[in-house]
Amino acid sequence: TRYIFHIHGIYDKKDSIILTERDYMRLYFEKELAGKILWSIISSFKILFIGFSMSDLDLLSIFRKARWEFGRGAPRHFAIVEESSFEARITKRIYLRDKYGIDPIFFSRQDENANPYIEEENIIEKLVDLNIGNSLQRDANSLIEISRINQGLER
Question: Does pTM surpass 0.70?
Answer without folding.
Answer: no
